[in-house]
Design goal:
With 376 residues, the protein is an alpha/beta fold. It has 15 helices and 17 strands.
Length: 376
């Protein structure tokens, strides 16, 4: 993978860049739609490609390992071929999913023993076998196995966990050196900064991760319930330390406002289930604020879903019709809302890129944050 910085904003730490992998170019800042089990929920690959048009999507190691299983993905020739997606894929390592299982897992130095949420069967993830699983899935960007701490988190626990994540990182790197690529393209490895919401731990972890010399770096353990101010404070500490000439990925973040504020702090890559999950619950994001389409006020509103017409669904259907679909519990309603929200998130990060290059990102960002804070 190569990464080229193309522009920097004079009034913030925002940057525009280009990442190039064997599956194509990724223009940053970028939002990666979450395709947990090899599908962005409710969206055909053709719609994903032609309407939402992301350079990269995300798959989930934990879920793909359980279903359909690594053997099936290998027989298909990797996840790209299995799901018929010829652009970039990033896989997370399963650390976050294992964290979210809380009562169904045991974390030890060797790795994590966990119970499947599907059938209750026991499995073990170690830094070594997670690298092998991600080799088999075949994503273009693969993540280190880490422990994601909860919020709030005791300082001593956060410190112990961070040091274990660093030891796990060394094991990941050592194992990758012995494990060749499975397919006819290369994979890029990102380690993950941890340290909960403690400034000294975040600094320490960022320095350790920067010294690992990977081609890109990620910031984990945020967006787990901490206030937005804490999220921004931790991100700022870390982005000041991580190398400028490598992409920075903030995992699991967030709202449209979170994304713009973190772009301003120097983050290049984002993923979050919010646009798809909230869409399925009837919440739409727009440049002028969020809409709860289930509300009575939209019952007889025959105006387009969104006049900005970012995707075809925005002007094809009215707010009243979309509200009707949700009240009738029709699957089409969730699909329409999902396409709209993902289209908006991709528009937002691409618009941010344009303004970084044009040199007026800060003013545009401040205006957008104010607008998007409205409930319509």
């Amino acid at each position: 993978m190569t990464f080229t910085l193309e522009a920097k904003d004079a009034q913030s730490s925002a940057r525009a860049g280009t990442m190039t992998t064997d599956h194509g170019v990724i223009e940053t800042p970028i939002f990666m739609p979450v395709g947990t089990v090899g599908t962005v929920k409710g969206v055909h690959q053709r719609e994903l490609k032609e309407e939402i048009n992301p350079d990269i999507i995300l798959g989930n190691t934990y879920h793909l390992y359980l279903r359909p299983g690594i053997q099936t993905i290998e027989k298909a020739g990797g996840l790209h071929k299995f799901m018929n997606w010829d652009r970039n894929i990033l896989t997370d390592s399963g650390g976050y999913q294992v964290y979210s299982l809380s009562g169904r897992r045991k974390i030890k130095e060797e790795g994590v023993k966990f119970k499947s949420h599907i059938d209750g069967s026991y499995h073990v993830f170690t830094p070594e076998n997670v690298m092998e699983i991600q080799r088999s899935i075949g994503a273009d960007i693969i993540m280190a196995f880490d422990e994601c701490t909860p919020y709030p988190c005791d300082y001593n626990y956060a410190k112990r966990s961070m040091h274990m994540t660093h030891r796990w990182l060394n094991r990941c790197i050592n194992h990758l050196e012995k494990t060749p690529f499975k397919y006819d393209y290369s994979q890029t490895f990102f380690p993950i900064v941890q340290g909960s919401t403690y400034k000294d731990l975040r600094r320490q972890s960022a320095e350790y991760i920067a010294n690992a010399g990977a081609e890109g770096n990620a910031i984990g353990g945020l967006s787990v319930g901490e206030p937005a101010e804490e999220l921004y404070a931790m991100t700022e500490i870390v982005t000041e330390i991580l190398p400028e000439d490598k992409p920075r990925y903030l995992m699991g973040v967030g709202t449209p406002i979170n994304i713009l504020e973190n772009i301003a702090l120097g983050v290049d890559m984002f993923d979050c289930v919010m646009p798809t999950r909230n869409a399925r619950n009837g919440m739409l994001f727009t440049a002028y604020g969020s809409i709860n389409i289930k509300n009575l006020k939209w019952k007889d509103d025959f105006s387009p879903i969104d006049d900005m017409a970012i995707t075809w669904v925005d002007t094809e259907y009215s707010k009243a019709y979309l509200r009707h679909l949700f009240h009738a519990n029709e699957l089409l309603g969730k699909q329409i809302a999902t396409i709209h929200n993902l289209g908006f998130y991709l528009w937002l990060t691409r618009e941010a890129r344009k303004h970084i290059i044009a040199g007026d990102f800060r003013d545009w960002k401040d205006k957008m944050v104010k607008q998007m804070n409205n409930r319509l």
